[in-house]
Design a protein that fits this description.
binds FE2/S2 (inorganic) cluster, 166 residues, disordered C terminus, DNA polymerase, domain 1, five-stranded mixed sheet, 5 helices, alpha+beta, Ubiquitin-like (UB roll)
């Protein structure tokens, strides 16, 4: 069986591995790179739990092959907080609004919101909720997640990724 060498920068660190062509980005991130914050629910692109950032865009990593991400910059939930532990404002908002319970869906939800609320980006509540409509959560009833989106969309919400007030 043929294999391919792939190199990506994951959470700021260069990582090289060898994969079969059929290996998903999700499996590569979890099994080879050790980023188990990438959760696998459906493995069919339905639940959103596996969402990561590839070059800043939210991607369902169960639907992308590792070879397709060769050379890319990838961010998982483990790489979102600042080096000193300061939470990303999306993480803060979800925590403040009790937008999680068991946490299984949470990494994917965080990454989708982060793609729209990263440094220099400010999505509207509608844009955030539209993006979140592709995520399934069995626990929260979605209301806390919705409030977190509202908090992020407020005019006075922080405009940078890790804590500076606008
Ligand atoms: S595990 Fe990828 S969308 Fe469900
Ligand atoms: S918090 Fe449990 S699935 Fe969403």
């Amino acid at each position: 069986m043929s294999t391919h060498t792939v190199t990506m920068t994951i959470n700021g660190r260069r990582h090289t591995g060898t994969v079969e062509a059929r290996v998903s980005l999700a499996d590569f991130l979890r099994d080879q790179a050790g980023y188990t914050g990438v959760h696998l629910g459906c493995e069919h692109g339905v639940c959103g739990a596996c969402t990561v950032l590839v070059e800043g865009n939210a991607v369902r990593s169960c639907l992308m092959l590792a070879v397709q991400a060769d050379g890319a910059g990838v961010t998982t939930v483990e790489g979102l907080a600042a080096a000193d532990g300061t939470l990303h404002r999306v993480q803060e908002a979800l925590m403040n609004e009790h937008g999680l319970q068991c946490g299984f869906c949470t990494p994917g939800i965080v990454m989708t919101m982060a793609a729209l609320s990263g440094e220099g980006k400010k999505a509207t509540e509608t844009e955030l909720l539209d993006a979140l409509s592709g995520h399934l959560c069995r626990c929260t009833g979605y209301q806390g997640i919705r409030r977190a989106a509202q908090q992020l969309a407020k005019p006075e919400a922080m405009d940078t990724a890790n804590g500076e007030q606008s």
